[in-house]
Write a structure and sequence with these properties.
about 280 residues; alpha+beta; 3 domains; four-stranded antiparallel beta sheet; 5 helices; 12 strands
Length: about 280
């Protein structure tokens, strides 16, 4: 299975809400050494952690999913510092250059004093060019490039950069489809705000941290293990048996024959993004 991380643009085939690098750094910061294994093992665990969030909490988050339909293939370019003079980005063979002094307006973007302004300058240059692709701002210090045409054909379009401080989320545009499918995961969302009223863009930090916590637990146990049921189909919460004289006592889970296992440390990270009517996490 391919490991496809949601980059904040509403990917139709994403299966992970956090990257391997994010989860690695999360546990390093906390001195947790039990997050081990090959890259494949870690990626599988992250997918399981994401699956758990989808299966347990989907439909209980505030706001609404961002992309109800997504036909054009896309990729996100994220910056950490300003690009240098002469560094480039390439979209389907079309080269655009960052410059401290612009000489060719059709293909060069001015490097401003701030990363966000520099990104805006490049977006303007790309959108003014006569190509089948458009660009727009994206959460964080990044920009989204998307095919102006719909369908899977856009998924083969290569993107690259010589900017040492920038990384594409996909080496080719990704997520173009002919079936008018929306995003696969519950994030990013529209109308999702902090308590202070600031819009939460992309995949929230707390959600990515929860994915890390669930992924860690999936290394040693099934997150969605099958419940223990008695012959009547009721879920057993507690059972006591005694021989001589025979005595048996069974306590069942009230109101349900099935239940999802809870993980308080991880669950609390999800809580800020849920509806108040979504129920109490225990």
């Amino acid at each position: 299975m391919a490991f496809i991380v949601e980059d904040g643009s509403g990917i139709v085939n994403a299966n992970a809400l956090a990257s391997e690098a994010f989860v690695d750094a999360y546990f390093v910061d906390r001195g947790i050494t039990t997050w081990t294994g090959t890259s494949a093992v870690k990626q599988n665990a992250i997918i399981k952690g994401t699956d758990y969030i989808v299966k347990r909490f989907f439909g209980r988050f505030r706001g609404q999913i961002q992309e109800t339909s997504s036909n054009g293939a896309k990729s996100v370019l994220t910056f950490t510092v300003l690009p240098s003079d002469g560094e480039t980005i390439t979209i389907d063979g079309n080269v655009f250059t960052f410059k401290t002094v612009v000489a060719v307006a059709a293909s060069q973007a001015l490097i401003a004093t701030r990363i966000s302004e520099t990104i805006d300058n490049m977006i303007s240059v790309i959108n003014a060019a006569d190509i089948d692709f458009c660009a727009e701002t994206n959460p964080g210090l990044s920009m989204l490039v998307q095919a102006a045409f719909d369908g899977e054909d856009g998924n083969s379009v290569a993107v690259s950069t010589t900017v040492t401080s920038a990384t594409w989320s996909f080496a080719t545009l990704n997520g173009g489809n002919d079936e008018n499918r929306g995003q696969a995961l519950p994030f990013p969302r529209l109308y999702l705000y902090t308590d202070a009223g600031t819009a939460i863009l992309g995949v929230p930090q707390g959600v990515k941290e929860a994915v890390a916590e669930y992924a860690l637990r999936s290394l040693t146990a099934d997150l969605l293990e099958d419940p223990t049921l008695d012959p009547t189909g009721n879920m057993v919460k507690y059972k006591k048996e005694k021989v001589g004289p025979i005595e048996e006592e069974t306590e069942y889970v009230v109101g349900s024959s099935t239940a999802l296992k809870s993980y308080p440390a991880a669950d609390r990270l999800i809580l800020p993004y849920m509806n108040a009517s979504g129920g109490t996490i225990r």
